[in-house]
């Protein structure tokens, strides 16, 4: 009976408790869901904010490259210079490996390099360096090129442009400029497109930009030069059998005060793959030598130049220039001498760079030339570390001397000295117009983070800092008339 009286109450109590339980659970679930949703919303907001910030930064970088005037931009790429089992096949000891991998330089953010090191027996270092862009070792060739590409728009807008890689031996200059190098010295292993460096990518981009222009208004010529032991070699010069071999050339200063290499071979190219083939041939002549730091060390400075000639139509050529005198001079000088290849109309390329028939039908035509100089400097080198002797030691001494001549030139321009010692070295004489003249100049510093290379790293960072202090005159733009498509 007792039980009978109580059981509905118990049942009621049980179902009540159950209900409460369900409510509590539901409440907790809703609360958790809301917290999660809030968290999600927050992280989504964070991601969006970060994305927007990154987008703004990229835009600012893009604009600053387009608007780059006078000053030199410096980007810095950090990548561990790992010990390799040296050219003679000696394996590197564990101790040396550790020494190499202990870091002294870090990308603190994408504009700052932090150098922090305290080694027993050495003065401690704690310094930051500011550049326009800093790449950590995780950043790809794509990322590096994305920051360079706007300069190529400038090139077709009438500016001279120079991109130069600087850094100690083995720090990644050739990789950055050309891409990974194969044993046979073929600069551009096409299978590895994602690893291609600035030079092949820039050429592709130049031809892409040209393809968007009115047909027949542009053509592109290439020259490849190496500065080896303070001598200039034309790497595209051919012998009577059509085989390329390095011919010694000289650099002179023209009456207008520009540097020029008389008799230098300029080959017309009509697309990026023609360019790659040509440069590959030239590069097979570039001198390399194994050292203890880098098994495939470049022993010369490489300068690849693309000259873009734009055909300008009309009577008032001289009024198209900001500086009237330049306009008049160029008006006199300009003559439509087209490359042989184009006059013969032998090209089968689809590039819009060539349309000789159209050119010859027009009388009032003048040329405007802009130049893209792509420079892979030989690496500065500490003889004690690279272990070079004999001819290689002589090469090292020429490399180091020409690099310090380059630093002296920057110093003289930065201090606005009356005399800038361009002629102290063939390298600086050759690069005179880009370094001190009217080109938009970007220096790509390559450094190693390892403690082992602290001295070389500090030297390169010092070079980059000095380059940023240089205030040159306004970069000159060559104005073109606006040509509408299909004209
Ligand atoms: N960011 C990178 N990612 C992957 N490999 C790299 C990178 N940078 C350099 N390397 C590799 O490191 C080695 C040395 O690089 P690289 O030849 O570019 O040095 P370098 O600065 O041109 O040296 P040197 O002045 O002696 O010619 C090469 O095998 C190259 O492929």
Q: How many structural domains does the protein architecture include? A: 2
Radius of gyration: 30 Å
Largest sheet: 10 strands, mixed
Please give the alpha-carbon distance between the first and last residues: 108 Å
Q: What global shape is seen?
A: globular
Q: What is the CATH topology of the largest domain?
A: Kinesin
Let me know the number of strands.
17
State the helix count: 15
Question: Can you tell me the CATH superfamily of the largest domain?
Answer: Kinesin motor domain
The CATH architecture term of the largest domain is 3-Layer(aba) Sandwich
- Proportion of residues in extended strands: 15-25%
Region (Disordered): 335-358
Protein name: Kinesin family member 25
Domain Kinesin motor: 71-470
Transmembrane segments: 15-35
List the main descriptive attributes of the protein structure presented here.
487 residues, alpha+beta, Kinesin, ten-stranded mixed beta sheet, three-stranded antiparallel beta sheet, 20% strand, globular, binds adenosine-5'-triphosphate
């Amino acid at each position: 009976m007792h039980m009978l009286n109580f059981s509905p109450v118990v049942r009621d109590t049980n179902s009540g408790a159950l209900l409460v339980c369900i409510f509590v659970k539901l409440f907790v679930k809703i609360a958790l869901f809301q917290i999660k949703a809030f968290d999600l919303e927050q992280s989504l907001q964070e991601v969006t904010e970060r994305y927007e910030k990154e987008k703004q930064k990229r835009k600012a970088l893009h604009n600053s490259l387009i608007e780059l005037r006078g000053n030199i931009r410096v980007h810095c790429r950090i990548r561990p210079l790992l010990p390799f089992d040296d050219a003679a096949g000696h394996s590197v000891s564990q101790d040396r490996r550790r020494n190499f991998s202990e870091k002294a330089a870090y990308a603190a953010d994408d504009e700052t390099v932090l150098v922090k090191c305290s080694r027993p027996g050495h003065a401690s270092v704690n310094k930051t360096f500011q550049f326009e862009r800093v790449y950590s070792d995780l950043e790809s060739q794509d990322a590096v090129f994305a920051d360079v590409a706007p300069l190529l728009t400038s090139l077709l807008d009438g500016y001279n442009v120079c991109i130069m890689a600087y850094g100690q031996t083995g720090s990644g200059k050739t990789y950055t400029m050309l891409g990974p190098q194969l044993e046979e010295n073929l600069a551009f292993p096409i299978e590895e497109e994602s690893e291609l460096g600035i030079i092949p990518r820039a050429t592709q981009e130049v031809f892409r930009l040209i393809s968007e222009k009115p047909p027949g208004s542009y053509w592109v010529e290439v020259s490849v030069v190496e500065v080896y032991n303070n001598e200039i070699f034309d790497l595209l010069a051919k012998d009577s059998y059509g085989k390329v071999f390095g011919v010694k050339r000289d650099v002179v200063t023209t009456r207008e005060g520009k540097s020029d290499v008389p008799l230098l071979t300029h080959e017309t190219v009509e697309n990026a793959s023609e360019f790659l083939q040509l440069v590959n041939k030239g590069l097979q002549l570039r001198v390399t030598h194994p050292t203890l730091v880098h098994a495939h060390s470049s022993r010369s400075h490489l300068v690849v130049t693309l000259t873009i000639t734009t055909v300008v139509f009309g009577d008032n050529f001289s009024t198209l220039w900001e500086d009237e005198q330049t306009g008049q001079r160029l008006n006199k000088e300009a003559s439509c001498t087209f490359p042989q290849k184009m006059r013969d109309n032998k090209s089968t390329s689809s590039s819009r760079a060539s349309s000789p028939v159209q050119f010859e039908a027009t009388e009032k035509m003048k040329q405007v030339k802009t130049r893209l100089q792509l420079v892979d400097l030989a690496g500065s080198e500490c003889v004690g570390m690279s272990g070079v002797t004999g001819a290689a030691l002589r090469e090292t001494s020429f490399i180091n001397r020409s690099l310090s001549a380059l630093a002296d030139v920057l110093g003289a321009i930065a201090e606005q000295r009356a005399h800038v010692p361009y002629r102290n070295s063939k390298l600086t004489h050759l690069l005179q117009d880009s370094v001190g003249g009217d080109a938009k100049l970007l220096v790509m510093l390559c450094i190693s983070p390892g403690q082992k290379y602290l001295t070389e790293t500090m030297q390169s960072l010092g070079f980059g800092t000095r380059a940023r202090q240089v205030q040159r005159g306004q970069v000159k733009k060559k104005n073109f008339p606006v040509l509408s498509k299909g004209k």
